[in-house]
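STRUCTURE REQUEST FORM
Protein name: Mannosyl-glycoprotein endo-beta-N-acetylglucosaminidase
Source organism: Alkaliphilus peptidifermentans DSM 18978
Requested output: structure tokens
Priority: standard
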Amino acid sequence: MRIIIDSGHGGKDPGASGFGMKEKDLNLIFANLLATELEKLNIDVDRSLINDNYYSAKELTDLIKSSGSSICISCHNNAFDGTARGFEVIHSIHTNGTLAKLIIEEVKKTSFKVRRAFSRESTLPSNAGEDYYYIIRLTYPDVETIIVEFGFMDNAADFKLLTDPAWQKKLTTAVATGISNYITSNSIGKTSILGDPVLTPDQLKSGLRAVNKSFDTGIVDLYYNISKIYGVKADLAFIQAIHETNWLRFTGVVKPEQNNFSGLGATGPNNPGLSFPTPEAGVEAHIQHLYAYATTTPLPKGRILYDTRFSLVRRGSAPNWEDLNGKWAVPGIGYGEKIIEMHKNINEKYPNETPSQPVTPENPVENQPTHWAKICHDELTAAGLLYSDHTSTLDEPASKGIVFCLVNRIRKELMKDE
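Status: completed
Returned output:
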């Protein structure tokens, strides 16, 4: 996961000020230190926006969205009237604020005064239902952007700590730890797009036949054959296709002749999305789009790029199905979870009926041919000429003593007959 850090303000925009210091200069210090602390945690950091340059709102947010980052941390420092103080984090109204809250928890451990984690909705009618702060509003849902206000630089108590190198390190270390905790927690319990399928093709074919008998179930085999090339989970990819097309009945704006099984590019009645020459091409385009979200690895060698929207995806920005929320579908709340739930339902309703393999003994006994001397051994034993079982040593050489004893027993038996 890549994180881009914005140093906040710059160039002709100095930001706030306090005790003769410009906010943009203090922001640069915190942004650079935060980048260093994140890199110590082996997190991929984009430093391109840590500078003293001025960007318009569109320029800045376009750079953030095109960076390939999943998270943006915009570093700032507050000012009010000299009386307010404390650390704040602002998150999008469209998120539950988990990232902001985890950062707040870590900063509290430093004993620095903490105010709150909050979100704010725009007060403009034209932006109703959207975020107040443009850097958050214009990057959602492509990038999860938060604004970190390290403190109030016009407050004497805060300013003293904000300009102290030891406290600067404490605060940036705390923020980095909170971000790291978020990345870790955000991956737990999620379902990866890449990997091996759980359901068999027959299970999915049974499900498809039960709902839509008219569609060729060979489409399932296409998904399994093509998904394997890319390492994408074929069962979930196919389930996404039946979710997008209403079990391949194409009751929405996308039509069957388009061979577009995942709604690529479809935005409404006037834009039904992409079309592909064959079902194979349509399936591969779908898999390629998932691949774009799941990894930054190049396409498998020799494959034709059918997905013309491939380059529009921030590579690796959604490695899990749940991460597609707000990306594949907007606002897309619960989108990935719906696909996982469909997977669970199909598995329960159409269990794998593949016959179990016969149980093989852990140490199978092979039928070995009878040793050529076994009959002689048994007859001599029955005649009383051998006093113990030598079956396991028939191929071993006999000592002179054993031979002498055996010959002597035979001599005695012959003498009895006389």
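Reviewer notes: The chain has three domains: 2-187, 201-349, 374-417. The radius of gyration is 36 Å.
Form closed.
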